[in-house]
Hints:
Blueprint: H1 4-7, H2 15-18, H3 28-38, H4 50-59, H5 62-80, H6 86-108, H7 113-119, E1 125-130, E2 133-138, E3 147-151, E4 159-171, H8 173-176, E5 182-183, E6 199-200, E7 205-217, H9 223-233, H10 240-269, H11 274-288, H12 293-309, E8 313-315, H13 319-325, E9 329-332, E10 344-349, H14 360-372, E11 376-378, E12 389-391, H15 393-405, E13 418-423, E14 428-435, E15 438-445, H16 447-450, E16 454-458, E17 464-466, H17 469-484, E18 488-497, E19 514-523, H18 530-539, E20 543-547, H19 552-562, E21 575-577, H20 578-583, H21 586-595, E22 599-601, H22 607-617, E23 622-626, H23 632-637, E24 640-644, H24 650-655, E25 658-660, H25 665-691, H26 693-705, H27 714-724, H28 726-732, H29 756-784, H30 798-822, H31 838-856, H32 858-864, H33 871-877, H34 880-897
Parallel strand pairs: 9-20, 9-23, 16-19, 20-22, 21-22, 23-24, 24-25
Antiparallel strand pairs: 1-2, 1-3, 3-7, 4-5, 4-6, 4-7, 8-25, 10-19, 11-12, 13-14, 14-15, 15-18, 16-17, 18-19
Transmembrane segments: 59-80, 86-106, 251-269, 275-301, 753-782, 802-821, 833-856, 871-890
GO cellular component, one term: plasma membrane
Family: Belongs to the cation transport ATPase (P-type) (TC 3.A.3) family. Type IIA subfamily.
Amino acid sequence: MTTPAQIHEVPASAVFTLLRGRPDGLNPAEVESRRRELGPNRLRPPSRWRWARLLAKHAFNFFSLLLDLAAGVCFVADAIQPGEGMGLLGWALLGVSVLNILFAFAQEMRAEQAMEALKRFLPQQVRVRRAGVECQVLAEELVPGDVLRVGEGDRIAADARLVESEDLLVNNAPLTGESRSQALRTTAAKGRLIESPNILFAGCGVLRGRGTAVVFATGHRTELGKIAALSRDVRRAPSPLQRETGRMVRVLTLIAVVMGLIFFAYGVASGRSLWINIVFMLGIIVANVPEGLLPTFTLALSMASLRLAHKQVLVKNLEAVESLGAVHVICTDKTGTLTLNRLAISDLVDPVSGASMDTPDGRRGLLEAALIASELRPATSQEAGAPCWSGDPLDVALAAYHAEQIGPPERLLAETRRHFPFDLARRREAGVFAEGDEILFAIKGAWESLRPLIGQIQDGAGQHHVADDQTLAVCDRAVHRLSSQGRRVIAVAARRLERLPDPKAPEESLERGLVLRGLIALDDPIRPEVPAAVSRCQGAGIQVVLITGDHPDTAEAVARACGILRPDEPAARRVLHGEELERLREHRLVERLREGVAVFARTTPEQKMKIVLALKRLGRVVAMTGDGVNDSPALKAADVGIAMGASGTDVAREAADIVLLDDNFASITAGVEEGRAVFANMRRFTTYVLASNVPEIAPFLLYILLPVPLALTVIQILSIDLGTDLLPAIGLGQEPPERDLMRQPPRRRDERLLSWPLMRTAYLFLGLIQAAFSLVLFFLVLHQGGWQWGQELAETAPLYQSATGLTLAAIMLMQVGNVIARRSEHGSGLDRGLFANRLILLGIAVEILLSWAVLYFEPIRSVLHTGPVELWVYALAWLGIPLVFGLDGVRKFMGKRHGRTVG
């Protein structure tokens, strides 16, 4: 088979020879042979066993294996010595392990849906010519060499070389990202295959006309298939949260296992029984591992994603919430994201004076010529407030302006006119209109495209001037002035014809002796909320980078209007043209980014990947916006892929982590703030949960080192980790952002969730306070009951159960003071409003209620093996609330005074 690099460069007459086909189509034997050789015309799906690999990955991580091992030991111990509660402990540990596996697995099973979205671009049936007969076949049965017939409204099923065309117009936007239509022809072409005007591309649609083409690439060999493979094969690096949770699990697991083994060995060496040592080792491990922490992470992210949904931000990957809060750079496009995507005529410019055109006849002639060169049709359905015409937004804006200034333009939309569709390579379109004896050829497009074709220039009064260097320079200056104001500029030219042109005459034959009628300036207004949103990002230390296909002057003006560039800042250092970007190697692009480039103009969607990789090489966390099929690799390569919900394609939306339902940049800023709040809340509840580990571990250490009873049992520890601690931790995960959160720089890429300041606060301060106070109360109850040093107590002894019950109740109550203090990193916690977070209030109520129930409610006491104490002793346990809260307030005050991180 021929290579795609050859197929568009040969004349139509040679296509069948290259593809070993015939004009009357392949015969059944040839079709079957090629299908066996190349496979069906469908994209490669992800592995059907991918779900099993994901499940295995989470089932065999350190945390899960540790809990499974501990559960297994519990089951063995229960079989050896039943009735000790070890079986219940084993089931509890196994349940926590399964819960964590399912949470993590559910988060990842949304992957690879981009492949399913890509499949929806392909039709189920197509028309082909085989063995001289035209028939319909399934799209997946196409093979190279098939003769494909297409018409208006068809979705193209494979890459095919056009050999016959009747006014064929296609929309390649799903592949190229360009929203303009593309006219096709059968003649040979040079240059890149993706830009060839003689190729039908899989996944794209036919807007008008009919044609015959020969298939040369199917399935994953098509251009769409290559993008799908690239999108699938791009491996996104682990998110900041994935790295941090993985590290935290490893650290806590290592601490738990090492401590358990050390003291198991110590117990064996000191002559304690194997049974006591096993129970003791399990207690150390269970006390060190915060079983409820990972589910709390997931719930915090889930609740944040629900809040973002109310702000028009749809989160598809939960971890992307936190990743968005960690971004250093946001790469955004212009149209619809920074602007309203509502084109409106702002000025008609006299090409001779360069000023606004003020003569009615001149304005009428300019607008009529522009409409003749447009592809505009009456709207098929009319809703209240909707435009009366359909077509390109530019053409609709022209029609609306004509209707407002002159009158309805219906006479210019007669079916007898001839239209030459917009040519992407030449960046212009044209049309012929006949009315009576007057025949007019009109053309409109980019000024750079029309400038070489201009022979004369017409002023507003209808006078013609020779298009010499001096008069053209006036137009150059006008275009530059308007573009630098952020406006889109369209040049319009025309000439009168003596007779109607031959229907088969190419547009190029009419493009001579053109008279420039004027320039049309259009505005796409900046969204009013965008400058403030960009300012908030910059105040938060986040760089905003604009990537657009517009003219550099327009890109610069929009960047200045939005605040991406300062008004007095020179553009030479900050704006990079797409042609220069194409030539730059990655290391040189990295240098330009380091020098401060913030605007990329006249870029292609393919260049987004190059920008993403260069920014990541600088160590930045990158968020990238996109809407087209060919944006999907860049969306996956970025740390956070953001697709447009209103204007984007299904493929971009499926490849992204986040979808903006309103296509609004300000929604990204809201997501950044929410992501930062999530990370801050994670630090809050991690500190809160880890603080109770020390009073859980301390009884086991005293028990192995001193002749004293065990102050907490394993079941009692689980009642804290999976009971009373869970709801307040979830409440801390819902705390709103602090006021100065968006005035702080983004955290460093290597900043830890389980940092030394956090561990110091949790273990060496809060944990030690709780351990000391709870153990004092434990020994107080024993002393009041007549216990003597070194005396052993049975687990069923009422004195022992009362002492452990009070220890458990004291830890629960001290966690009330801890959760209030954790609400603010620098303040007391009460300053945020005690009744503002209902989940925390509910969690506090549960902790207080259970602190009473473990001592005085028989059903709870029987499960946890606790007993009652005198009310005055229980009242002493309440002193733990102001003790923890007050001492932590002193610590925060001293930390702020000495400029330390307080946490």
